[in-house]
Design a protein that fits this description.
single chain, about 150 residues, Conserved hypothetical protein from pyrococcus furiosus pfu- 392566-001, ParB domain, four-stranded mixed beta sheet, 9 strands, about 20% helix
């Protein structure tokens, strides 16, 4: 169940995915990532986390760079991912100065990362007729923290 109405063909899967398959396109705010690492480590048994939103074809991270880099630092081999059809018209990359999706995918395949928060991905809600944060397509996952060193 989602809090927004959207074309259900947009979601292509929700899975645990090998972290090495994901392609970030943005740097992160180091302080925010470090805080997330500490927060996750503070849970003795498990932590509930939003899935990382990725393109189902390119495995480009669309939303969740801080979660990705935090989980990677913590040694997670598999991470929760919501796979979406990034080419779908109901996804945009920004409000005023949007960046072409193909350019973002190209950055994700290169070793060059854009500055943090360079893109502002949103999904169109057919009920409210407004663009909403794309994290609303995420699913909640339980990750085990008891084995984190």
């Amino acid at each position: 169940m989602y809090s927004i109405d959207f074309d259900k063909n947009l979601i292509r899967g929700v899975n645990l995915v090998d972290i090495g398959l994901l392609n970030p396109h943005e740097k992160v705010i180091e302080k925010k990532k470090t805080s997330l690492v500490k927060f996750i480590k503070s849970y003795e048994d498990h932590y509930i986390i939003s899935s990382i939103v990725c393109c189902h074809k390119s495995m480009l991270i669309i939303d969740g760079h801080h979660r990705y880099f935090a989980l990677k630092e913590l040694g997670f081999k598999k991470v929760p991912v919501t796979l979406i059809d990034y080419s779908h018209k109901s996804i945009r990359t920004g409000t005023l100065n949007s960046i072409d999706k193909e350019q973002i995918i190209k950055m994700g395949r290169s070793n060059e990362l854009m500055e943090p928060k360079s893109t502002e991905h949103a999904v169109y809600c057919s009920r409210t007729k407004k663009w909403q944060p794309i994290i609303l397509l995420s699913s909640m996952f339980k990750i085990e923290t008891k084995d984190i060193l």
